[in-house]
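Please review the protein record below. Let me know how this chain folds according to its tokens.
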Amino acid sequence: MLERDQIDTTELIEVFVTAKGSIYQSDVENCLYLTFSGKTSKLSFQSLNDLKKIIDKVDLGHMCTLIEHADIEIILLKDNCFVLSGIEIIYLKEILQGAFTMFRLNHIITDCLDRLVIS
């Protein structure tokens, strides 16, 4: 995990931001920064995609029914470890879904603009 002052924010492009966290893109470093629960993680696009797949597979209904156990999910992802409660999984899922929607939207817009220039 990185501290906020260790990141050069002048080179970052906002991908998606909520009140609970954010994802920024660094073209210079060819990576993404996920800020969530007071921590910032530097991730490759593939790692972010892997994290989204893991988060999407978490069974929140099952987590909420575990009365004798804590509703905690531990996610290990290469150099990052996330210990998340059920509500944190919901917040992180929102951030990841928003970021990937923005990636798809950017791709669609670029594709349309390329078609207009070629025509």
Summary: Residues 4-118 form one domain. Helices lie at 45-57, 60-65, 86-118. The chain has a mean pLDDT of 87.
